[in-house]
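hey so i finally got around to running both of the ones u sent me last week. sorry it took forever, my laptop kept dying halfway thru and i had to restart like 3 times lol. anyway pasting them below in the order u listed, first the sequence line then the structure token line for each. didnt double check formatting much so if smth looks off just lmk and ill redo it

first one:
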Amino acid sequence: MMFFKLWKHDLDYGLLRKMIFYVLLGFGQAFLFCRGFSSWAAAMSSIPDVGELTETFGNHLLYLFQGIDEYIPSPDEPFDFPSMWLLVFLCGNLLTLTYPLRDLEGIGQQILVRSGRREYWWLAKCGWEIVSSFGYLLMLALGVLSYCLVFRIPIKAEISQRLMEVMIGWGLDRSLPQAEVWLWLLVIPLLLLIFLNLLQLLVGLVFGPIWGFAVNGALLLLSAYWMKPFLPGNYAMFRRSIWVLIDRGMVMGNGVALLIGESLCVIVVGGVIFHRRDILKKE
């Protein structure tokens, strides 16, 4: 089937042949941010009222996706820019930024013309975005795992409630459900990155890659600044989850439904636009 030929082509040229960049970005970020977490945990553990904070594989992953607390604009409270959280997702966007248009100007254009079905090309690119998003986050997780192995940090899935309380600055009213927290770690960041990469693909094909990247950056920054359920980035900040903000936090199920729905909308709208748009006009 032509769709699978196009998809195989994209996985080969757009992922496997660029895997070194996924490894470098994933492992590089993991070591950088994990080192920062280790230094912070050591400094906090030296405070008598805090006590020892245990480092585990699970705690390091949670640290990467903690995000920031709900921001309430105030002259006395400056906005806490979530640089680490933003970089994790924007680097995933950066990896998939230019390949679709480069492919369209090269061998991908020949394949597209021969196939006679623009929908196959578009759906293959969407499938490539999904696999690429998973591949990037997998490299990030493997980077965290490697850091733990190098520095002899326990490879445990345990999420420390005490650590979370120190991060947010207050005590939690109930215990963190380990299984649900891990389900959140495995699902929500992946679904958000898939949506962002699909959105970037659509905007990039219509207006240019830089605009696609800019839209994602603006959406993430707006999510960090404004805690609203219709802004998808909020669901990928654990500090804003219902387990931390019990009375008003983000519910994982709602986030899953929103992100899947938005991704499907992008795929459908992109398919319609791509079918009608003269994408070969430059030639």
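and the second one:
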Amino acid sequence: MSGSATSVGAAIAAALDRAEQLRRLGDRPARVRIMTIFGDDRSGLTVHASIRSNTPEEFRAQHGLGTRCIPWDELDARAGELVGLVDAAVGEVTLAVKNAPPVERPSRSQSDVEIDKFGSLIDQLGRTLTHSAMAVLKDNLNPGMPGDVGSEATMVAALKLAALAAFTANIGANDAQDELRIAIGDVMSKASASPELSGRPPLNS
């Protein structure tokens, strides 16, 4: 199809169909958005593709990539290019993610002595964060609010902090999820071994 023979509406529909086809091809599909941007040097009909990052390196690898734009004053003539722009944008971020360097947890490069200190630091941080959470719950929890709601709020806040810490430590989502599974398993084991905790263990258990 030539650009001059393609209506803008039909070209956008074809581009969206192509994006859906590409989404179904792999286990790491790209999200494609077709956006209207006005008022800056990117003003025009813009195609943007991105793949959900599993590691900070994959996030960084995609930065500044996956974007194609047709200026408004060229859109009528170039509408037929939209499907190709979708292919180009998706291909660019797919290659970037594929070539992103592997992530190694910082603690795995430490000596045995440093690993012992690392374990002690984990314990100290755990106690400090728990005591801080308990203090906040004691001071701010509405008397009419069930205690398990406070525990849920603590969980969400802790996960947000964990996500930020994982990103700054260059730790991927899979490693973070493994640590969460281990932590949950540890709580379940403690609950099974201690009859007094078999119901709902308190946050400071």
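quick thing i noticed on the 2nd:
The CA atoms of residues 14 and 21 lie 11 Å apart.
anyway thats it, ttyl
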